[in-house]
Amino acid sequence: MLEQLTMQEVSQIILSVPEGVQIPGKRTYYTGEPIMIINNPGLSNLSFVSRPVKTEDGRGFIGQAGLTNEVKFTINEGSILYGLWSYIYGEEQNTSAQILQGVEYITPEQDGKLYLGTLPKTLFLYEIEDNETITIDPDEYEVQYDSENNRYYIDYQNVKETSNYMASYTYQAVPDYVTKMKQVHNNIFATMDIYIDAVDKKNDDKYIVYIHCDKVQVDTDLVISVNNSQKASFTPIYINSVPVKDEEGSVNKDVATVMVIKNG
């Protein structure tokens, strides 16, 4: 049945928590809970990869078998990739206040004040004149609050209207989300379910091809494309299927289950 179907597109990929798996550095995830649901990926390429395993004795080659141990697919969707990458390699933290580094280029306003976009904790001021950057002594300025305009500004008596200024400072902010990118990966295990839309070449009947793996190991890179309207990113997600132990202890274990379901 499968050989007469034309695969059109992957409609959904579901990665879930397998039984008996605990993920360090994360909140408690329950068995069967989705890690990532990928709907209608813009571009995907799915393949089952086999590698040869040879059997030899002292006199040489005896036989060879193929070992299927890897499923690969590529997805062109930046938000999905970052969510998955962050889940696998990042360590989520609470969103308490953080100290950030910022730089502003300031042009003096009509009142001669150098207004800031936020309240700095530490600040260094520089004057830019004729492409030359001049450091201003910190004793010559201080940060003040303008209650009338509800803005912070740098109180500097020697402001020149013909010059521009640069302020380098640290400030406090509460981010919506914080992820620490770790050097050592967690090697996340998951259950994988894939839905593929397919059409019978003989009579144009529509089918759904469903692929299930009880346990896979997820690995991916992260590519962030900036100022690119063509795509968010293009990063492969690698799935290595882990053979499932059966009660009989068979050597030839199940790697995946493929089903063909009539659609409508």
Describe the structure.
The protein has 264 residues and is mainly beta. The chain has two domains: 2-94 and 178-262, Pnp Oxidase, Chain A (Roll); 98-173, no CATH class. Helix content is 5%, strand content 53%. The protein has one helix at residues 78-89; strands spanning 5-16, 34-39, 47-57, 60-75, 90-93, 98-106, 114-115, 120-129, 132-135, 141-146, 151-156, 164-173, 178-181, 189-200, 206-220, 235-241, 257-262. The strands form four sheets. Strands 1, 2, 3, 4, 14, 15, 16 and 17 form an eight-stranded antiparallel sheet that branches. The chain has a four-stranded antiparallel sheet with strand order 6-12-8-9, with no helix packed on it. A three-stranded antiparallel sheet has the order 7-11-10, with no helix packed on it. A hairpin with a 5-residue loop joins strand 14 and strand 15. It is elongated and about 85 Å long. The relative contact order is 0.23. The model has no long low-confidence stretch (mean pLDDT 79).
